Amino acid sequence: MATTTLRPANGLTNGSNKIRFIPLTYNQAESQTSALRLILTLRPEWEDGKIEFVRFTDGITNTLLKVINKKPGLSEEEIDNEAVLLRAYGQGTDRIIDRERETQNHELLMQHNLAPALLARFHNGMLYRFIQGAVTSPADLRREDIWRAVARRLAEWHAVVPCLPTPRQPLAAEINGSQELGIPAPTPSRKDPALQAAIDNVAPGKPAPNVWTVMQKWIYALPAGTDAEKSRQASLQKELTRLVAEFSNRPGLGDNSLVFAHCDLLSGNVIIQPRSASSPNAPETVSFIDYEYATPSPAAFDISNHFAEWGGFDCEHDLLPTQSQRLGFIREYIRSYFAHLGQSLSKADEEAEVQRLFVEVDIYRGIPGFYWGIWALIQATISQIDFDYASYAEIRLGEYWAWRSEEDGSRKAAGEEMTVREKRWAQEA
To answer: Where is this region: Disordered (predicted)?
Structure first.
């Protein structure tokens, strides 16, 4: 990143902390025309400039464009310093993502110098300052200098950013039960306050939103038009109820055992910051982008979720971190976490924290597959992006079921071979 120091953003309304709203829409079919209209509304002084668009394709749900104004005489770095990122949401993703919450996340991270300045929002996206640096690949995530940098930055997020609940409107309607789900089910209106209350209360005692409420929202959003779809929704609901009972009250780092988690720390969301000319041999540093899935979560979930991304979208399970790599990552994380809290631990206490978190991450290893499996089932019905979400859903849910069968001994009892992912997870070095 060029800098994480906050500067006054031209997109902010004068005398207010509210982010400017531009009443326009990005249209994929008229990409350059609609993007240009948005940029010139934000930066009218660019009208006589040489505006260029660079499309990024690292994500699989949103459109991301870098917009630059190539003024004569400026260096590439100077041009990048004024560049703007345009992010347009994928079709139907409001069924999955709370966009108001995403904006709150971005503003909250800005306050802690962990996000670029958010310049404006528009009907189906946002505009923010460009982040200089190199986007990582899954192979980069497996480099020791990079995974140590990720561990340090993730620990900073978890230590310094508070978990803030989202206020809700008072309950205005009852919600009917459902034999299919066995618990309160959605009313005909997906915006019914009763539905929101059922989601928020899925993990009693935990402030909403959190990773459990997110999964509950997604299960409610699953297609249920056929008997097979209804059966799958009911099965996944049963598993979520089981997961909440088993995991939501486990002890862990943070207030109420929750930290402000990224929850989507794939390679495309990790940026390697340029090294300073004065410190060419300094350790690598990284920053994170895209905060649409960020929510309070157990630290162990966020870390195990990141480890799953070492294999990329192709889910190459034989490339996931071994025990020794996970232990090294967690040691780096724990040192950074308590340093950011201003706490000095003895070597013995630090190692005890490392071992506790190592065990928790191991226990959580199957849950990211459940999380992204549900997500992909929804994407398979709404996305227009050329990606096989249905197959991806089966792979990720397969990770969850393989973990379950390993934990309860059913795989061994059936005489079946351990999956590649579980073998890799058990590998020491």
So the answer is: 408-429
Average pLDDT, the chain: 89
Domains identified in the chain and CATH numbers: 20-129 (3.30.200), 134-163+254-426 (3.90.1200.10)
Q: Give the Cα separation of 173 and 190 in Å (integer).
A: 12
Q: Tell me the residue length of the chain.
A: 429
CA-to-CA distance for 21 and 57, rounded, in angstroms? Answer: 26
Please tell me whether residue 129 adopts helix, strand or coil conformation: strand
- The span from the CA of 380 to the CA of 314, in Å, is 16
Distance CA 89, CA 59 (A): 11
Q: Please, are residues 14 and 21 in contact by the beta-carbon 8 Å criterion?
A: no
Residue 135: phi and psi, rounded to 5, are -70, 135
| Alpha helix stretches (DSSP H) within 341-388 | 347-363, 367-382
Q: What is the DSSP secondary-structure string of 182-196?
A: SS----SSTT-HHHH
Contact indicator for 113, 2 with CB cutoff of 8 Å = no
Identify the segments of the chain with pLDDT beneath 70: 1-17, 57-60, 167-193
The whole-number pLDDT of residue 179 equals 42
| Cα–Cα distance measured from residue 174 to residue 383, given in angstroms and rounded to the nearest whole number | 32
CB 331 within 8 A of CB 323: no
The model's pTM: 0.89
